[in-house]
Amino acid sequence: MDLKKEERYYQPDELHRWFGISSVLFLASIIIMFANDYIREWKGHQRAFREADVALTRANIESAAVDDAVKTELEAAVATAEAQLAADQSQLDELDSLKTVAEGEFYWANMNFMGTTADLDEARYLLEHGLTERHGEMEARKHFEEVTAKVKLFKLQSEGFQAEIDGYDAETTTLQARHKKASSEMNELLADLSVFERKLLLIDPEAMSMANRVANVMRDLPVLDFLAPSIKIQQIIVNDIRDDVNFAVVPKVDRCTSCHLGIDNTGFADAPQPYTTHPNLDLFIISASSHPMNEFGCTSCHAGRGRGTSFTSAGHMPADAEQAREWEEKYDWEPLAFWEEKMFPAQYSEAGCLKCHASEPTIRGAEKLTLGLTIMEKASCFGCHQIDRFDDWDRRGPNLALVSGKLTKEFAFKWIRNPRSFRHNTWMPAFFNQTNNSSAEDKRRTDTEIHAIVHYLFENSGDVQLPSTVRSGSVSRGQALFESVGCQGCHVIEPEPLAIETDLDRMFQRHGPNLIGMGSKATPEWVYTWIRDPQFYNPDSRMPNLRLTSREAADITAYLTGLTNDRFDGTAAPALNEDALADVAFKWLVKNASEVDAKSRVDEMDLNEQLLFVGKRSILHYGCFSCHNIPGFEDSKPIGTPLTLEGSKPTHNLDFGSVHEIEHTNYNWFEAKLTNPRIFDRDKVKPYDERLRMPNFNLSRTEVEAVTTALLGLAKSNVHADKMADGKMDDLIINRGMTIIKDYNCQGCHIINGQGGQIVDIIGDPNLSPPNLNTQGAKAKSDWLYKFFKSPTTIRPNLAVRMPTFPLADDQWNDIIRAFQFSAGATTTFETPHSSAGKTNSTFVGAYLASKDMGDCAKCHVMAGKNPTNARTDWAPDLALAKDRLRPEWIVDWLRDPQAIMPGTKMPQPFIPSKADVEFEGAEEYFPQAVIRMAGDDEALLESLRDYIYSVGEK
Amino acid sequence: MFDWLKEIINLLSTPSISFTLLAVIIPFVFPPTDWFEKWHRRLGLHHLWSIRGGWGLFGLITAFLVFGFFDENFGKILSKPDNVPIMMLIYFVFFFVWLSMHSAYANDARLARGEKVEEDYGPDEKVLVWPDLVYIELTALVLMTVFLIIWSVGLPAPLEEPANPSLSPNPAKAPWYFLGLQEMLVYFDPWLAGVIFPTFIIVGLMALPYIDDNPKASGYYSFANRRVSIFIFMFGFLALWIFLIVVGTFFRGPNWNFFGPFEEWSIAKVVPLTNVNLSEYVWVKLLRIGLPSHWLVRESVGIIMLLLYFGVIPVVLARGKLRGLVERLGPTSYALIIFLALAMVFLPIKMYLRWTINLKYIIAIPEAFFNI
Amino acid sequence: MAENKKPGFVDSVAKSQIWKSIFRTGIPVTRRQRMMGVLNNVFLHLHPVKLPKHAVKLKYTWCMGGLSFFLFLVLTISGILLMFYYRPTVEYAYTDIMDLSEQVPLGIMREIHRWGAHAMVIAVWLHMFRVFMTGSYKPPREFNWAVGVILLTLTLLLSFTGYLLPWDQLAIWAITVGSNMARATPFLGHEGPGASLLAIGDVNFVTMSSDIRFALLGGRFVGEGALLRFYVLHCVGLPFIVAILMAVHFWRVRKDGGISGPV
Amino acid sequence: MNIEQEESGAASPIKRRRFFSWLTIGWISFSAAAGGFLTMIIRFLFPNVLFEPPQSFKVGFPGDFQINEVDERFKQSQAVWIVRTNDGIYALSTVCTHLGCTPNWLITDSKFKCPCHGSGFRKSGINFEGPAPRPLERYKITLAEDGQIIIDKSVKFQYEKGQWDSPEAFLTV
Prior knowledge:
The complex is a heterotetramer. Chain A is mostly helical.
């Protein structure tokens, strides 16, 4: 065409083509955009889950199928019932027609009634109004009465008709009764089957009607999927556990259940992820558990990004590189960028518990976490690192104020340089010869420092009065004692490491040091004095006093000092290198003095001064004082970083140095650090005193994992008070007591709240082992408990193991007792003394029940000092102690069913005669009158038995 | 492999070197004077604006970016969602600079041959708006939409951790289009880099039509007629704006340290920034008599130098080289122009002083927040 | 069959009363219809009826001005939609943005808005570049060039204010860095030269909580106040000014003799 | 008029033939895309998730409710009345079926009275006076594993549809 004539520039077809092409692209891009928006990871999961659910339901229907015989029988019954119904049909019809008429009438009457009641309300109002306004009340009242009358009338009428109707109904029901019964039985039988079938109708397209099937497809179509989608995001909003967005905290929103659809459905226990049932439904998820899903959500415990709706954006973190690889190909997973609070990898999931169970010394169901915390107590991480949880805990390591009385300098040197060369499983960590201070030149420095430290310690050590000699004891008797009196509640003697993994029980067993090589460590004199009275040498030692006689002490001393470590004795400490000493002294001085001054200062000092100076600086530098009480360091501050919120420290604040072989996550950092505390100094060039100095505790794999879990748990939380596990006063009280109990290792010997008592394994026979204290609070009187704790008395004469005397203050005892009481739900401190006085009758009956040919308590129980007839192993506590010791109502409970209170106890259920037992010819010869009278009334009998027990030993 | 190449590129892209290169190259690429013109031709730089030259440049840039993508460090930076627009910017700027210069050269050639410029169809050659213009506009919009949608589908918008006032990311960067300013902040105090210079830029741009009194070449692409103005504009636009943005985005890492494209952004990297004030140079390093107590005395040197720079140079120029200009424009607008020009040149000068002698401030009066 | 049916149909539509009532002219086939088409249409008559030939050449215009305007419209629409799901408060800003990608239908609006904004900045620069290279700022178009420069600045400010709204680290720190420059404004910023001169006696009148930055942020640091202010500026304040100036800009294009060209 | 036709006649043959092809495709796909975009904007207005309080909640044990009393504890928080009769418990919606006001429970004349237009409902929820077209709705009420009553507002039962007979509309205790 002639563009010029047309006054155009472009060929129209050109333009058309361009426009055509671009519009097609436009359409395409719009479609892509929509597809991209419509296709979501979670939708796929929901579809898949639904199929799985259909399969499951089908299976359920299979299993729910009923026994045909029963079914046919019922069907028959129904049939006959129907037949009869048919027979009565005419009657029914008649009733029906009558009813219809009556109903019509009723409707009429009722309407009148309803209407007039409304009028009545009005009339009442008018009357009241009239009365208040003081005029027109006359007419008002008149009107009111009229209406009232009307209402009455209509009421009568409608009630009449109602009654008539009810009559017909009654007849009908009687006629239909049989059929109803039969069919209801039928439904009964098919109940759960029909439940499944109804469900199947909802989810299984093949089971659906045509229309539903269409709808089922339509509802999830693009664009239309806002009308009534079956595939939609599931979300749980938790208002009192909140997420921190720095400027504010916002309610948790967890969408995890959009994919984890089977989480609360037991049917999916072994379905593949993400449909798997939660492994622990007793504790979590379901509304009967203590952590219902709707109140706690998911990320409150597991962490992660609850709003995430895709595998990656939810913040999943793999347990190991292996799983990471698997996820990458399966979900093209990558660590969620720009979100600190990622999900805890499976092995650390217990970390989440600490958020709410903050003050519990042992958290049930979170064994790994508890182990981690316990290790932190043992290794006293809180010595160097401030941790709120352990604030005002005292130093864990031995008191060194009197060290010169206990050790030789030689030993101290070798011990400090490498503790494990003396004791393979000590909690004393290794500071020296680590990856960042093992070069020859470093050794030159460190050896000097050790010399100086030892020197400082011994110079500042006080003297302790030890007996000049100890009477010689017998090793064999000593060993026997050691193994019987209860030393093994806290101590082991393990010459070689055992190949067992650490767990909480082992922690109880190894509460005190492993006592190998005592001979190479301390003099008999010291050991003797120590075991006789630990607090004599170290006032704040937690070692209890077993009240050993001098002879027993001597024997045990003989046994312990007999154990020596020759390999350790064999090596000798190197001599002190004075030049090196001067160097170190100079290096310290020059840090805050000019070269010249420092030099001259060093020259001024004599050897002793140099040693003291370097010693002091070294102790400060390595923080020895944070575990040991060292004169001159009473109020030095912790040297490590605070760990109270370590779990929520941003990862980029953790210095990985040049360690790149591990994924940079906080838990990897913790694990690496705990396995080798100096690892992040690798390839760093630092002056000695700026290098990492956290000592090496040689933790095993399990231990490292446990501690890491605990560290992750030490995170900031935004949990509302009433969601906290220790939100209530009782919990706090129990926790306070239990903390002391754990700290003094009562559970080394006793089972308390279902934990501990390992010593049984060593003693062998539970009946010769320390008692189980599970219900102690309900059992023993608080004042007796207190007396007993202060000065233990023999209760079970047959036990060789002793209850030691603990160096506890009154308030601590009170805490413990209260903990016992509150955990047993018996919280009264003072109670009116129960006594058998004046209850001659009941006491008599009790005595009879306890007598030789009835219960025969004396067979096992010591009676006011009179030993039982049975073998020693079966002996039981002296009943004479009961009145002071036991709560009267507990005794009754106990007698009612001992097993219920203490499973596995040897205490048999006493014979309590029932009516039947005493109703036979000549019962009188067997039973006293009183017994026959009371028989059948178990409570009374039990109480009488209790009263008798109270009377034992009374004159 | 290619490590040697990466090393070289890293080295070349250090601000001092790369900026110098740019500053040297630009006048040869956009020759403002005959002398440069001569070398421009001699070096065959005019071929850049030929079709082939265009493809050449395009290939070069693409090759570099592709090469960059396969390097783990540079790749990381390039693939940051918010850096994508800058890559587009690079391409677009390159393409349109080329296109404009291409048409300009074409027109210049036509004019040289005494023909009419390409855009010139004479007054009576008119087109109806409907359908042509309307139609191509519509098409353009549709294509733009397509482009936008594809971009949005392909590249999710970034969202980092929740805002946290107590924890600033390293490095903390302004939006990319302000990175030029943030780069200036390295060399100037906020009140200059953040307030005065932007104001100058805006004012300068708005003043442009009044400054540039050259009536020629209005309404068509042409270089020959407006060499100087195009050269200055290119220098400002490419060297002082686009280039600084690129540096700020790609080459500024943790602690605002400079990192070559193929360098790893390690927080550990340490660079000494012991900067010295001019006053210290004079009083301490030179005279060794410590700083005078009164600020006026202390800063006298700097003040004098600046006065010389902004006061004397214009006069000298007015007397000499730019006499013609002064006569044409009159003193006021001349003063304005020369001031803006000097201010613009002041930026590179200061940058060089920093690179060469670690000069911090020419005038440093922290008492009054007055540092230059 | 179809062939002569269809045009018949098209024509009948074009001749129908409804069509005429809306578009006045029929299918713009004839010269007159084409002119009327442009004249009678409120949108199209941004343009003159006739143009010099070079004005329709993409090679000359690059269409950048048009695209800038179009992108402004795109941003307006997507922005309005985003306002349905976004709350400018420190509690919800971040999570709302997060939800745009996690659950909101067509949360992709956010991408369109963000990338559209970047594209607009680039388009505006290139538009300016084109205008410079064709010397189109020369008389009589000096003033419109100035308006353009202001529009450019406003575009940057629009983008800058929007940058804060996701309320993530990127946002808050970009704005902190950016707004700290205001702190150094001579006389108006408390760390700017001359601020200390604006004191009477010992009372300093330009302080951290009274300077220009404070006015911008509604607080001493980037916090709740800043978020709200930036939101208002971004959604209402700046667009309002931009819209007015654009009107001026387009109007002037026509009044200054249409698109520039060789004279 | 005829001029137009003539001209169009002149212009047309060239056009006619080429009219289809790209132009048609162009316009069809353009309007399709534009239409699609509008549909999306409409879809955009319907959120995928709600942040309203959960529809089902626990109200305590059956024992907590007095026989023949209307429990108003959950009126504020959940807009539900819980009524216990001799043979069971049911949950009534507090939304008037007339225009959605919230009626008040008047103990004296034992009825729900709506302040807006005076509709009245009996304790059972049946409407008996005023403009309300139908009885108040009842909600699904069941027992949880732990024996507490769960009320699910997402499931409604309407008397006029005979749904009150369904086992979930009434909790027999």
